[in-house]
């Protein structure tokens, strides 16, 4: 019986090739999108689930309670040793420090190559907590001695051209010779750590002394602390016990620490501590569901529209003995065949777009991810669900046709039903499309607002170049002078980072004008020389610029500091003393206008700007727009003559600012891609419907033309009903989209406004797209001779 169903279904589908193709293409786009989204969700939900003791591994994190709560994915450097030795909660505790872009020299095929490499300084017990085995399968990883390292297979091949390299060495930062004690298997793509070179933690003090200290007075986010707990630990009880540590080691600090344990299984999807926002996964999942719904709506609409034209077929079948159940399963079989073809096409589309999807979202999906039982089960479930939901309503509708009326040709579209359902479903399609378009417009406006709004400093044509942090003042000054003499260079400043570089923010304690206690809030340190203000075009509002000295004596602050202190004017801060970081005592000589020291998700912080050579890590070079390539080349020549042992790299500051909104850019790309897909799928359905409606009303059009109607009148006849449905859809979509986008914008301290015209524009866009979609068939019949139309049977 089932074989006969499929055979008849195939014949019916071949008979109506155009509508079959529309249904297959619409469902294929829905399936393909859903497959990509399934892979995306599976990828992010499988992070760090491959370790033997995943349920017992925790990262130690800190809540910093000042005038607001800040969440830091780290702890003070001294925490790890205390937690392991003074408490009986953990089997192993280990620290790592992540360091980006260190210079590595390695010999490959007899040639020494120099390149930048991300490094992790790791304690040996780190590899006893996590399962990152050597290529020989063992876990005997040795990092106990200074100047030792383990690297991955990929790193070994990149650095040496082979993997049998135990006992060989590379040079780190032109100074330290590091011996390789083992080669690791490549880390799984779903590991929170993707660095390929691990150096002994004993070497961290050569690069970052604070991270290797036993200090309780500060936190660096580069340092991470992990613990493998004993089985069956009560996490709440541990966290309660840890409340004693700040009282013991930080009794007078206004920055109240609360130490927490974060499960390894939640790290990747915990936005509080820098992980991926799980909302993104929900958004992906809902959009994937929407696309499947839109494709299914197309199928239902076209199938119910065909009911009138298949009425005689149904009548004959019923007269010959078919019962409702047989007819229902016959139409469900047709849906299944269409769904099966669409599924294969959808898999092909997904495979085609995996590389672009990976590049867009910076993930590592592969075709091999489709070769597992979970994916096959997912496809089967989607196929069966879509086939049943899409085919059951048309099947029930067609199976209820009265055979006598069908054979006599007495049926009309009201008898076959589905008209009201089609309107409701088309409204749902339009509402989804309007919501996606409105969301795209709002996200785009917010990103544009964040990037192009006045940030309080000049980011255009400013080139940022790294310099060694241990550079002496005299050669640094000489380099700045040489760079300043290059035609096209307007200003040069040595600094810790650019004004808005959130990744380099250094928040610290503050005591103002010899007050008895530290303030409740922290202050951000921005290090820069005397040219800092001029290079970034930051205006002074009171006082003067500082003079550079051998030691840090004079500093600038911003207006926000005065506001936080409750002062009435910036001038009140001039001449006052400031103590920061516990032991830095300086005089305030000037106040600068507020600038955005971080991205738009956060309020502007109190800022301190001072000149201290040991803090400088970058040069900010302001250039003009003439002969940019030549200017950059000359800057590179001067830089390389000063730092021949390092690698010259530069970035434009405006690019860095844009990178701060990388997540938002991905949201925007997501909205654009799926908005277009929703529109394409919806247009396929509209095109299929208009084919039926034009065929149904061909004689009517002929009569109207004979009676004097023009092409515009005919076009209006077909578009008016659709435009009414779009207006109804807009009425439903507007409050939903408004609410969702209002919630999203709550994450920004500085945000754009949601205007009514955004939703009007989304509706107008859908109207224009609808008009274009249905115009071809409508104009074709409207321009045809009325004689031909009236002869249509």
From TrEMBL:
<feature type="domain" description="MacB-like periplasmic core">
    <location>
        <begin position="20"/>
        <end position="244"/>
    </location>
</feature>
<keyword id="KW-0812">Transmembrane</keyword>
<dbReference type="Pfam" id="PF12704">
    <property type="entry name" value="MacB_PCD"/>
</dbReference>
<keyword id="KW-1003">Cell membrane</keyword>
<feature type="transmembrane region" description="Helical">
    <location>
        <begin position="714"/>
        <end position="734"/>
    </location>
</feature>
<feature type="transmembrane region" description="Helical">
    <location>
        <begin position="754"/>
        <end position="776"/>
    </location>
</feature>
<keyword id="KW-1133">Transmembrane helix</keyword>
<feature type="domain" description="MacB-like periplasmic core">
    <location>
        <begin position="431"/>
        <end position="632"/>
    </location>
</feature>
<feature type="domain" description="ABC3 transporter permease C-terminal">
    <location>
        <begin position="673"/>
        <end position="782"/>
    </location>
</feature>
<dbReference type="InterPro" id="IPR025857">
    <property type="entry name" value="MacB_PCD"/>
</dbReference>
<keyword id="KW-0472">Membrane</keyword>
<dbReference type="GO" id="GO:0005886">
    <property type="term" value="C:plasma membrane"/>
</dbReference>
<dbReference type="GO" id="GO:0022857">
    <property type="term" value="F:transmembrane transporter activity"/>
</dbReference>
<feature type="transmembrane region" description="Helical">
    <location>
        <begin position="280"/>
        <end position="302"/>
    </location>
</feature>
<dbReference type="Pfam" id="PF02687">
    <property type="entry name" value="FtsX"/>
</dbReference>
<feature type="transmembrane region" description="Helical">
    <location>
        <begin position="424"/>
        <end position="443"/>
    </location>
</feature>
<feature type="transmembrane region" description="Helical">
    <location>
        <begin position="375"/>
        <end position="403"/>
    </location>
</feature>
<dbReference type="InterPro" id="IPR050250">
    <property type="entry name" value="Macrolide_Exporter_MacB"/>
</dbReference>
<protein>
    <submittedName>
        <fullName>Duplicated orphan permease</fullName>
    </submittedName>
</protein>
<dbReference type="InterPro" id="IPR003838">
    <property type="entry name" value="ABC3_permease_C"/>
</dbReference>
<feature type="transmembrane region" description="Helical">
    <location>
        <begin position="327"/>
        <end position="355"/>
    </location>
</feature>
<feature type="domain" description="ABC3 transporter permease C-terminal">
    <location>
        <begin position="286"/>
        <end position="402"/>
    </location>
</feature>
<feature type="transmembrane region" description="Helical">
    <location>
        <begin position="21"/>
        <end position="41"/>
    </location>
</feature>
<feature type="transmembrane region" description="Helical">
    <location>
        <begin position="673"/>
        <end position="694"/>
    </location>
</feature>
